[in-house]
Specification:
- The chain is mainly beta.
- It has a domain at 76-252: Immunoglobulin-like, CATH 2.60.40.
- It is 8% helix and 37% strand.
- It has one helix at residues 26-45, and strands at residues 4-6, 12-14, 47-52, 56-61, 114-115, 124-134, 137-144, 150-156, 175-182, 184-185, 187-188, 195-196, 203-205, 211-220, 223-230, 236-241, 245-252.
- The strands form five sheets. A six-stranded antiparallel beta sheet has the order 5-8-9-15-14-13, with no helix packed on it. It has a five-stranded mixed beta sheet with strand order 10-6-7-17-16, with no helix packed on it. Strands 1-2 form a two-stranded antiparallel sheet.
- β16 and β17 (245-252) form a beta hairpin.
- The chain is globular, with a radius of gyration of 31 Å.
Length: 254
């Protein structure tokens, strides 16, 4: 027999558990289906497009994507002249990307010097230096606030010296690529006061690939010099990008 209680007029009343209990509201029956539908939609749209390596769009799925380059821009034509030094690695106006299978074959790359003449432009100012590891190559990027400067990129033997002091500069690795860019500087000397434009480090570590480090070795009379330390002498290529202006150096890492 169930528990008894008293109603308002004094008579006994038997309470049967659950006899008059209200059912769950109608919307609760559809809640699991709604949650499942939202989960499917979220899973379908979690595809992130990451811009890496300056000018290359890489599509990655989920939250495990990574980017080793910042301030990437869109590749476009450059007004840089053709190389004046005989070389097997010709300058390009766009930064190449991965080939079939995801690894760039580095077509046209070599170990000979690559150079363009000094253009007739105002001194362009260095704003960033970046190092990134890609599939098939390591990339070093020099970014400027003005036009693309002329450049000379070549292998050099030690000792590496600083300009204009001629003091030796240590560069890690068994090979060194010397990079000379002009008219270019990390500071603005045209105004009434000296203004430092490039405020980043003068020694930048590599990312575990072929490049060991990138070291500033000179900034004098609108000639900017950097050295790229490498684990070994490897093929390289040089290209340029605009918006913003960049000199891009790729070194084979496979």
């Amino acid at each position: 027999m169930g528990a008894t209680g008293e109603d308002g007029n004094g008579s006994d009343q038997v309470d049967e558990p659950g006899a008059d209990a209200p059912g769950p509201p109608p919307w609760r029956r559809y809640l699991p289906w709604a949650v499942a539908a939202v989960a499917v939609v979220v899973a379908a749209v979690v595809v992130t497009v990451v811009v890496t390596g300056d000018g290359e769009d890489v599509t990655t799925t989920g939250s495990g994507s990574s980017s080793t380059s910042t301030s990437a821009g869109t590749a476009s034509s450059s007004t840089a002249s053709t190389a004046t030094t005989s070389t097997s690695s010709s300058p390009s106006s766009t930064a190449p990307g991965p080939g079939a299978g995801g690894i760039d074959p580095m077509e046209g790359a070599g170990t000979s010097p690559v150079a363009t003449p000094r253009p007739d432009i105002p001194t362009t100012h260095l704003t960033e230096v970046r190092v990134a590891r890609q599939e098939g190559y390591d990339r070093v990027v020099f970014q400027f606030d003005g036009a693309v400067p002329g450049y000379d990129v070549r292998y050099v033997d030690p000792p590496i010296t600083e300009d204009p002091s001629d003091q030796p500069v240590a560069v890690a690795g068994d090979a060194v690529l010397a990079v000379r860019m002009e008219p270019a500087s990390g500071a603005d000397l045209d105004g009434a006061e000296y203004r430092q434009i490039y405020t980043g480090p003068s020694r930048i570590p590599g990312t575990g690939g072929e490049v060991t480090e990138v070291v500033g070795t000179g900034d004098f009379e609108s000639v900017l010099k950097w050295a790229i330390g490498l684990r070994e002498k490897a093929d390289f290529r040089v290209s340029t990008l605009t918006a913003p202006s960049r000199v891009v150096i790729d070194v084979r890492n496979h």
